[in-house]
Amino acid sequence: MYLKSRLQLILNFNFFLIFAEDQKELKPAARITNYIISSVRFMNSLRANWLDPEVYHLHPTKTNTEQFRKYLRFLPKRVSSYGAFVQNAYPLDMSQYDRLFNSTRIPKHECDLLVSNHNNIRHIVVIKNGHYYKVNILEKNGDLLSAEKIASIMKYLCEDLNEEENPYPLGYFTADKRDRWATIREQIEALSQHNKQMFKEIDSSIMLICLDNDDPSKLNKSLSKNQRAEYISGKYLCYNAS
């Protein structure tokens, strides 16, 4: 049902968070660096099975304690959940955590496709001015790059890169109805093998970070009537290989 819905993802399905304003007044590059490092550390903990289970506690003063966790550790795995139930502590489903990283929902006709790729993926994708940049944040051995290196890359993308804005940003179509986006994506991929590879790089990335701050309501005002028709038909979608 979830993947078969043809509605736009925005508001209908996509969840989102708004973070509290950082009182330290860090520059965008520093904030993004902190976010990347924290996210990758969480990803590594998840894949190493180091995360504590998500548990809903009816009586947290009794069960959300180290003593209770020690009690559960002594129970066999096959009955540990029942041991929690007895104390009114209910483990929550964490099966979808595995799709937090290196995962995407690919638009398809009638039913979308969930795809995950954890095979030696080292990169994230950063969007700036409608352009897509692949950034390796892991070493070949899987170690996270130093904070200094990541900050340097983010500073370049945030402050020093002066590439002109892509007048036909591809991300616009991800907010469209699913069948329409599926058709457009298929048309783009059919144009060249390079386009197919670019989609693979985006789909398999650890995460995607968008640095754009444009007002979407201004999109139509910035395009002439003919440009809007060409834009929607897909004529200019591969501008700058996006």
Shape: globular
Give the total of beta strands.
7
Count of discrete domains? 2
For this structure, the quaternary state is single chain
* CATH H-level superfamily of the largest domain: Choline/Carnitine o-acyltransferase, domain 2
At CATH level 3, the topology of the largest domain is Chloramphenicol Acetyltransferase
Summed up, the helix count is: 8
Low-confidence stretches: 225-242
N-to-C CA distance: 31 Å
**Which structural category do the helix and sheet elements fall into?**
alpha+beta
The helix content is 25-40%
Q: Could you tell me the strand content as a percent range?
A: 5-15%
CATH class wording of the largest domain: Alpha Beta
- Return the average pLDDT rounded to an integer: 85
Q: Please write the string of helix (H) and strand (E) elements.
A: HEHHHEEEEEHHHEH
Q: In order across it, which strands form the biggest sheet?
A: 6-5-7
Characterise this structure.
The model is unreliable at 225-242 (pLDDT under 50). The chain starts with 27 loop residues before the first helix and ends in a 9-residue tail after the last helix. Strand 5 (123-128) and strand 6 form a beta hairpin. It has 242 residues and is of the alpha+beta class. Helices cover 38% and strands 12% of the residues. The chain is built from eight helices and seven strands. It has two domains: 52-93, Monooxygenase (Up-down Bundle), CATH 1.20.1280.180; 97-241, Choline/Carnitine o-acyltransferase, domain 2 (Chloramphenicol Acetyltransferase), CATH 3.30.559. One of its GO terms (molecular function) is carnitine O-palmitoyltransferase activity. Residues 1-225 form the Choline/carnitine acyltransferase domain. It comes from Rotaria magnacalcarata. Pfam families: Carn_acyltransf. Keywords: Acyltransferase, Transferase.
